[in-house]
Amino acid sequence: xxxxxxxIEVKLPAKADYVSIARLTVSGIANRMGWGYDDIEDxxxxxxxxxxxxxxxxxxxxxxxxxxxxxxxxxxxxSVTDEGQHFDMERLAEEKGPVSGTKPVAELKEGGxxxxxxxxxxxxxxxxxxxxxxxxxxxxxxxxxxEENVDAAGPINKQEQ
Amino acid sequence: xxxxxxHTREEDKDLLKVAGEIDAYTAPELREALVxxxxxxxxxxxxxxxxxxxIDSTGLGIFIGALKSAHNYNGDLKIIGLNERVHxxxxxxxxxxxxxIGEEREEAK
Lengths: 161, 109
Description:
- The complex is a heterodimer.
- By secondary structure, chain A is an alpha+beta fold.
- Chain A is built from four helices and five strands.
- Chain A is 32% helix and 22% strand.
- In chain A, helix 1 (19-33) runs antiparallel to helix 2 (37-57) and helix 2 packs antiparallel against helix 4.
- Chain B is of the alpha/beta class.
- Chain B has one domain (3-101): 2-Layer Sandwich (Transcription Regulator spoIIAA), CATH 3.30.750.
- Chain B is built from three helices and five strands, in the order ββαβαβαβ.
- A five-stranded mixed β-sheet of chain B has the order 1-2-3-4-5, sandwiched between helices.
- In chain B, strand 1 and strand 2 form a beta hairpin.
- The chains are: A alpha+beta, B alpha/beta.
- The A-B interface holds A 16-17, 19-20, 23-24, 38, 41, 44-45, 48-49, 51-52, 55-56, 98-101, 103, 105-106, 108-111, 113-114, 116-117, 120-121 and B 1, 21, 23-25, 54, 56-58, 60-62, 64-65, 67-68, 71-72, 85, 89, 92-95, 97-98.
- Chain B: This is Anti-sigma factor antagonist.
- Chain B: Keywords: Phosphoprotein.
- Chain B: InterPro entries: Anti-sigma_ant, STAS_dom, STAS_dom_sf.
- Chain B: Pfam families: STAS.
């Protein structure tokens, strides 16, 4: 059985000015899908982090970022793609992590929290580097729902009888 | 989709009240308002986030920078009035362990 999937795409200039548009677009779609307040707030932060990465790293001179939203019966899938230089996402990923309470304040880094937040706030995250970089993230209606376990008929089936 | 910053000098500290959303677009304005206050020798800077309903890593980064700057000048940074959402991001990232964060604001309101 194929999953019903609507797809929405928004192309925005890769500027900080438009990060809030990406955030509000996802918020509107997720609200339409019936997500709750906390999940939507999580998605807004995750999407903003992905867009901010594009704004900060993808282009030396202006470019664009594409926000894609797959509306699935079991999940929302959001991608943020750029066509910029292939910035070293692996290095960014290595640096990611929470702030360590034991480190001297002078050694704290001001960056590196973005990818960590995406990872923490979403259920699945993939980074694809083809032409530019795409960050694909998913949130499932059932928090423990890794894709293989989700019945095609949707989240309700997973409830215990 | 904006942010407002209001600064008042109190007897023993600088108070910065922030309202709105702190993201990649608005963060530079916050940095401009906040960092110079942390560069006064031995100064205490208190940032009130009571009316902030959105923050992401760009905003969190500003506070890390401000804390470092405050410590360089033997001062300190304190953040108060965080709502539950904003507080959550400080906790997830571990920032609540390095920055002095006042009590979560009262639920009843």
